Amino acid sequence: MLRFTLRRTLQIIPTVVVVAMLIFVIFSVVPGTFAASLFADGKRAADPQMIARLNEEFGLNKPLMERFATYVTDLAQFDLGTSFRTRQPVIDLINDRIWASLQLAIAAMAFALVVGVPLGFLAALRPGSVLDTVTMIGAVSGLSMPQFWLGLLMMYIFALQLNWLPSFGYGDGSFRNLILPAVTLGVTPLALLARTTRAGVLDVLNADFIRTAHSKGMSEAKVVRWHVARNALVLIVTTLGLQFGSLIGQAVVIEKLFAWPGIGSLLVDSVASRDIPVVQGTILIIVLWFLVINTAVDLIYAAIDPRIKQE
Amino acid sequence: MRLGFNFWLGAGLTALVVLAGILAPWIAPFDPVLDADLMNSELPPDATFWFGTDGQGRDVYTRILYGAQISLTVGVVSQLINSIIGVTLGMTAGYWGGWWDDLVNGVTNVMLAIPSLIFALAVMAVLGPGLPSLLVALGLTNWSWTCRIARSSTLSLKSLSYVQAAQTLGYGDLRIMFTQILPNIMGPILVMATLGMGSAVLSEAALSFLGLGIQPPFPSWGSMLTDARQLIQLAPWVAIFPGLAIFLSVLGFNLLGDGLRDSLDPHMRTRNP
What we know:
The complex is a heterodimer. By secondary structure, chain A is mostly helical. Chain A has 13 helices and no strands. Chain A has helices at 2-10, 12-28, 34-37, 48-58, 64-76, 90-125, 130-144, 147-161, 175-205, 208-215, 220-257, 263-272, 276-304. Chain A is flat and about 85 Å long. By secondary structure, chain B is mostly helical. Chain B has a single domain (5-27, 49-268), classed as MetI-like (MetI-like fold), CATH 1.10.3720.10. Chain B has helices at 5-27, 60-96, 98-113, 116-127, 131-139, 143-158, 161-168, 173-209, 221-224, 228-231, 237-264. The radius of gyration of chain B is 22 Å and the shape is elongated. The two termini of chain B are 18 Å apart. Classes of the chains: A mainly alpha, B mainly alpha. Chains A and B meet through α2, α7, α8, α9 and α11 of A and α3, α4, α8 and α11 of B. Chain A: Belongs to the binding-protein-dependent transport system permease family. Chain A: InterPro entries: BPD_transp_1_N, MetI-like, MetI-like_sf. Chain A: The chain crosses the membrane at residues 12-40, 98-125, 137-158, 178-194, 232-258, 278-304.
């Protein structure tokens, strides 16, 4: 188990390096520099001297290879560069924001787990029942819905009409501010979890070893607890890990909708203002986060199901 | 091959979106961009404006009909690009193996490490907003799964006797891939593409909502929702109808894809609904 853990953890490094290179390449082909784009709105006449000065300051007039070398050396020292706009280190900007994002992601996943898994479980134990039908229709709808639209509707109903919850913002960081964005973000993983849990439990229920357990006189409750829950768990953990990527992606939209001060809204704002170092840094941190989660999922997975390690 | 109720519901919804997009110039009562009249802004739904009017006094129903054109274009073109990239890489990697296989696998793994909406957002940041950039961004985003499926299907077909017979007859590699292997992996690829259309439409809506996709005044369902946050208190219909259009069309693609998958692969059948 230790060797497996070590190997999987070390595998993160080459992937991050390649992603970092990919990000650098993508953003080096941006037509026009940041300095030039400052004047692109046409409100001020472009000042060639000022453009030259800004390019000099950010080192944008150096050859591509030299810039790449600087980027890699900085990165190796965990330096993500300096924001074009605020002149602050990118890592500080991300530091200020990442806690809010973590809070939102964890709350959304917790909501999805606490509601989705029991729903899928109950649906599978009573196939064809009203609960089963409603859950599955709900799941298909949840997967087809634009999440930010659902967020808008919930904002309208619970914040603007009923006045139960704040409509947007972080507030003083209270739980009330977290509810609407977290529920909105949790809907898609919830739907997927309900669906996979149901499918997984149904598969296990039809397996031979369940029939054996029944025939040797094991009680229903015990069968469910010992065999069904354990085997369905593998599927649930996998779904959770796979879902995390799209959750992080969707979080960008949801953070923007609810004016949530996380790294997602930082990313969108930086894209809009062409603050490339912040865009690059934020994407890199998001990818790193995603890889860490995936590795953790793999490890949990191997701990639950010993068959995996051999692969 | 039996197709269930869900498949037909999905096909019906998809047909509705296609008809709305094609017939928009004839059945839409107004012009989606030019018929803006501030005297008529934020009117609730009535006999003239079926879905009400938006902040600029444009007919929401008209804009939704035209929006179908953008969503369909995005869905179809992006999935076409996705499938071509995914199938080409996956099939050749599975067939040739060796260093090429390792390379393709490596690239696929890197792509899977980047959440797809984040990747699309990065590409949009580079290319700038607009429909062509959207098509490129979403076309480059989701081919990894297609590639994996094409690769593993090719691997299992490679050892079958009819492929080996073709090799014995001296057929070239490309000829074997395109005439012997491709037709046999089209099923799962088609399912992936159909399901991918749904996620492409959702991604387009999200990017346009963020102001990075289709730019106003063009009627994309996502960009129609950009103003909705400010208007929702006064004019909730501005938020409700475009979202409903996205929801129903994505539901259509998803049910269609699920139905196709179930009929192609009975083992994957998700017991109704």
